[in-house]
Prior knowledge:
With 407 residues, the chain is mainly beta. It has a single domain (68-82, 124-406), classed as Porin (Beta Barrel). Helix content is 5%, strand content 54%. The protein is built from 2 helices and 21 strands. The protein has helices at 2-17, 156-161, and strands spanning 25-27, 48-50, 55-70, 73-74, 78-93, 96-105, 110-123, 126-134, 167-179, 182-191, 227-236, 240-250, 255-256, 259-260, 266-278, 283-294, 307-324, 327-342, 358-371, 374-385, 394-406. The strands form 2 sheets. Strands 3-5-6-7-8-9-10-11-12-15-16-17-18-19-20-21 form a 16-stranded antiparallel barrel. Strands 13-14 form a two-stranded antiparallel ribbon. A hairpin with a 2-residue loop joins strand 9 (167-179) and strand 10 (182-191). The longest helix is centred in the first third of the chain and has 16 residues, at 2-17. It starts with a helix and ends with a strand. Keywords: Signal.
Amino acid sequence: MKHIIIAILSLISTISFAQVDSTLFKRQQIDSTKQQLNMDAVYNRPFLSLGKLPVSIGGYAEVNWQHIGTDGVSEGHQFQMRRMTLFVASSISKKIKFLSEIEFEEGGKEIAIEFASLDVEFHPLFNLRGGIIMNPIGAFNQNHDGPKWEFTDRPISATQMLPATWSNTGFGFFGKTYKNSWMFGYELYLSGGFDDTIIDNEQSKTFLPSSKDNAERFEESASGTPLTTAKIAIRNNKLGEIGLSYMGGIYNTFQDDGIVLDEKRRLNVFAIDYNTTLTKTNTFITGEWAWVNVDVPETYTQQYGDKQYGGFLDIVQPVLKQNMFGWDNATLNLACRFEYVDWNVGRFNETGGNIGDELWSIMPAISFRPTQQTVFRLNYRIQRQTDILNNEPAKLGGFSFGISSYF
Length: 407
C-alpha cells in the first residue's frame, strides 16, 4: 500500500514541476451533475493528462465545519477534513483500461484502495472487469463522489445500513447499449464478501458496514464462497433512470480446515434507485431504497434484526443561474434530503410490540456551484432516532458547512 501511494505522489510531484510548459497539459472537463447511468460514474470524472503520458490523474477533496447537538448537548464547533481521493487511470492499449480510486480519510488516518480494476472491452454489451470492484448495490455506492452532491453528509441508509463505498476483489461482466432515447446497462460480479462481524460487532446489532473494517477480505473470503452482485438499469432521456440491484451470499465462517462449525447463513440485499430531471423546472430528483435480510442464529437476542430497510430522497432545485462573482454560469440551488432507516423490522416475541431502532431525518440545504465541479453547501439536519425499546427519541439538530471539489 505504501509503495503504491509513494508512486502516485511522485507522479503528482513530477507533473507539478512540469508546469513550466502548460501546453503539455490537457484537462478533461466534465459536468459533475450531468446524469448518465450510475454505472458510468467511474469514467465520468475529470482527469489531467500530461502530453503523451499514458497515465491520467485526478481526484476530489471534502472539508467541512459543523455544529451539531443531541438533546441539547453539543461538542461545539468541529472542523473536518473528511476525505481526499485520488484517481489514476490509464489506457493500456486498445480496449484495455485501468482505473483506480485511492481514498485518504480523516486527515490520512485511514487509507484505502476503493477501486482498482482492469476493464477489457470485447463488445459494448460485453466487457470484463477484474480487480477491486465497487459492488453496484443501489446507486450511491458507485456514484458517491462528494462534488456531485449538495449535502455534506453521505446518506445514512447508504453508510449505516448498507456499507457505502463497499468494494471487494472479484471479477465480472458489464455492458451498455443505446436505442433512440433509451439506454440499458447491466453489471454482474462475483467477489469476496461479508463476514461474521455483521452480527458480532461494537454496534450490538445487525450492522453490514462492520465488514468494511476487515482488510483481509481483499485476499480471503470469510465463508469461502463468492458474493454475487447484479444490477440492471434503464434510462430514458425524458423519464430518467431506474435501477434494480441484488447482492447476496454466505457471510459466516461455516467451516475451518474441513471441520463444520455452523450451518451456512446467507444475507440478501435488494435495492431500487431512481433519478430524473424535470425539464420544465430543471428540478433534479434522486433516491434509493434497500431491503436487507440476514439469517441470524436463533441463539441471538432480538436486538439483532433479521430484516432492515431504509433509503433517502434528494430534491435539488436551481433558483439562480448566471454569471456571479466572476464565474460564468454559476448556480445557486435549494435542496432537501429525506431519510429513513429501520435497523430491526419486526415485533417482540414476548409482547407483540414493535421493535424500535429506527431513524428519520430531514436536511434542507443551500448550495452554490461556481462551476459544476465545485460545490459550497450549507445544511441543517433535523433528526430523530429511537432505541430498540421505542423510548423517547434522541433529538439531533445542527448546521454543517462544507466545500467539495474535483481537482
